[in-house]
Design a protein that fits this description.
Number of domains: 1
GO cellular component, one term: endoplasmic reticulum
CATH class: Alpha Beta
Structural class: alpha/beta
Keywords: Signal
CATH architecture: 3-Layer(aba) Sandwich
CATH superfamily: LmbE-like
Number of strands: 7
Shape: globular
Pfam families: PIG-L (PF02585)
CATH topology: Rossmann fold
Number of helices: 10
Distance between the termini: 54 Å
Family: Belongs to the PIGL family.
EC number: 3.5.1.89
Order of helices and strands: HEHHEHEHEHEHHEHHE
Largest sheet: 7 strands, mixed
Oligomer: single chain
């Protein structure tokens, strides 16, 4: 009997949390990311910096849905083709297909295949070179805001973590007026708690200094599943479970990277 009570309680909490996500517009909690003091939105030119194709679908769909629904201009720069298993060309096309689902203009997606930025857990990327490449890329596109992983990179993947170091190096060295935000990693329990983590994410963001952290609920969580399904080369059973149970399907917490 005690186990039945626990199971029912968890189920009720899961459903309540999912309802919270799906009824974002009716909620008293309103995300104010990229809003000015008066609550009005100013259209921003945003660069989403990824390490591999599928990062956008596995980790950043709440952010992308928030940005596209509010008319912000999104560019994606993916630093590798994800060629660890020799499927780089296939994975490039899958990123374009997933981006179409997420309403990111295909001509604003760039995927690099640099010899020093190859996919792999043991392949550490040079963040000084990464910062220089970012600076060069931003000479060809108009960008005033960058979003990427934090210094743990959600999964601890070294390529994710190196992106954060590269952005910090860019902010330190560049004379450009660039704003940067990082996706906050969580512990394992929170990461696999699905929509339940929404409550903790909101609480965490509310108690952070004003304007330094924002909690973005995924207004269309099914898009995470549909977008990730475009990555057929990666769409194995455990990634299907990940998208279903990962809190990053339902909520993103973004923290400002200070210079």
């Amino acid at each position: 009997m005690p186990w039945l009570v626990i199971i029912v309680s968890v189920f009720v909490l899961w459903v309540a949390s999912l309802c919270k996500v799906l009824n974002t517009y009716c909620s008293p909690f309103k995300a104010t990311f990229l809003s000015n003091a008066g609550g009005a939105l100013r259209r921003r030119d945003v660069l989403l910096l990824l390490a591999h194709p599928d990062d956008e679908s596995m980790f950043f769909t709440p952010t992308l849905n928030y940005l596209t629904s509010r008319g912000h201009n999104i560019h994606i720069l993916c630093m590798s083709t994800g060629n660890a298993d020799g499927m780089g060309n296939i994975r490039k096309q899958e990123l374009f297909q997933a981006s179409a689902v997420l309403k990111v203009p295909l001509h604003q997606i760039k995927i690099l295949d640099h010899p020093d930025f190859q996919d792999g857990f043991g392949k550490v990327w040079n963040y000084n070179l990464l910062a220089r490449i970012l600076e060069e890329e931003m000479q060809t596109i108009v960008v005033d805001l960058i979003i990427t992983f934090d210094d743990y990179g959600v999964s601890g993947h070294c390529n994710h973590r190196d992106l954060n170091q590269g952005v910090r190096k860019l902010l330190h060295d560049s004379s450009r007026d660039i704003e940067a935000w990082e996706l906050v990693s969580t512990n394992t329990l929170r990461k696999y708690s699905g929509p339940v983590d929404v409550w903790l994410s909101i609480l965490y963001a509310v108690h952070y200094p004003k304007g330094e952290m924002h909690c973005l609920l995924n207004e269309h969580p099914r898009k995470s599943y549909v977008a990730m399904a475009q990555h057929m080369s990666q769409w194995v059973w455990y990634r299907k479970l990940f998208v279903t149970f990962s809190s990053f399907t339902y909520v993103n917490t973004l923290r400002k990277i200070n210079k």
